[in-house]
Specification:
By secondary structure, the protein is an alpha/beta fold. About 30% of the residues lie in helices and about 20% in strands.
């Protein structure tokens, strides 16, 4: 049995009211909420928020808002893990329960992504599964730029390496994290637990933090075949 928890605080400085701002015609948070509810994967879909408008939109979409997040977990520096730990404690969930932290900006996440993550978690007995994607250029050939504008290779030993011969590196795409309640409540740092990466294509990996990010993401979202259709 799996529970989705969407952490959505009211404050956002770079894009004010980001979680309820209209994205492709609907509040941003509506898209992952609708996808989660339509997926059939979750016995409960909940929103953890400190904000009355976000709570209202969530309830209108069919999600639960069983508690209001305390101010101590709703500021700029509040990390995700304590927010999910608070929700687990409030709900008194058992350790074996599967918890999916699904971000309110995860508009490119699909139900198939979540199904694959559940299957991967169960097949590997991992603590967490999270989506990642490869950097677009090999980090082995990264350059530094000093205050005078002078360039230098960070790893000079790769000067003559072909890009296809360099190692691939991956980054978190900031969409969701699936794990057991026990893993979420663990005192171990996140990456000291067994965390499995699930690769997704770069065209669906977008961190929406600035107005430019927003514009690009909205254009791509509207033109991805079937993505909007599956969650309307």
């Amino acid at each position: 049995m799996t529970i989705a928890i969407i952490p959505a605080r009211g404050g956002s400085k770079r894009i004010p009211r980001k979680n309820v701002r209209l994205f492709a015609g609907h509040p941003m948070i509506s898209w992952p909420l609708r996808m989660a509810l339509a997926s059939g994967l979750f016995k409960r879909v909940l929103v953890s928020t400190d904000d009355a408008e976000i709570a209202s939109v969530a309830r209108e979409e069919g999600a639960e808002v069983p508690f209001i997040r305390p101010d101590s977990l709703a500021h700029d520096m509040a990390a995700t893990v304590p927010v999910i730990q608070h929700a687990i404690s409030e709900l008194r969930l058992p350790g074996h329960e599967l918890i999916c932290c699904l971000y309110p900006t995860a508009v490119f996440t699909t139900a198939d992504d979540l199904r694959e993550a559940v299957q991967q978690l169960q097949a590997t007995s991992a603590d967490f599964v999270m989506p990642v994607t490869a950097y677009t250029y090999p980090l082995s050939r990264a350059l530094s730029l000093d205050p005078t504008g002078r360039l230098a290779m960070k790893a000079p030993e790769y000067l003559n390496s072909r890009t296809q011969d360099c190692d691939s590196y991956y980054h978190d795409v900031g969409q969701f994290y699936l794990g057991t309640a026990a893993a979420w409540m663990s005192e171990k740092p996140f990456y000291e637990q067994m965390v499995q990466g699930m690769t997704i294509p770069r065209y669906r990996a977008h961190d929406i933090d600035t107005p430019d990010d927003w514009q690009l993401a909205e254009v791509l979202f509207r033109h991805l075949p079937g993505l909007m259709k599956t969650v309307k």
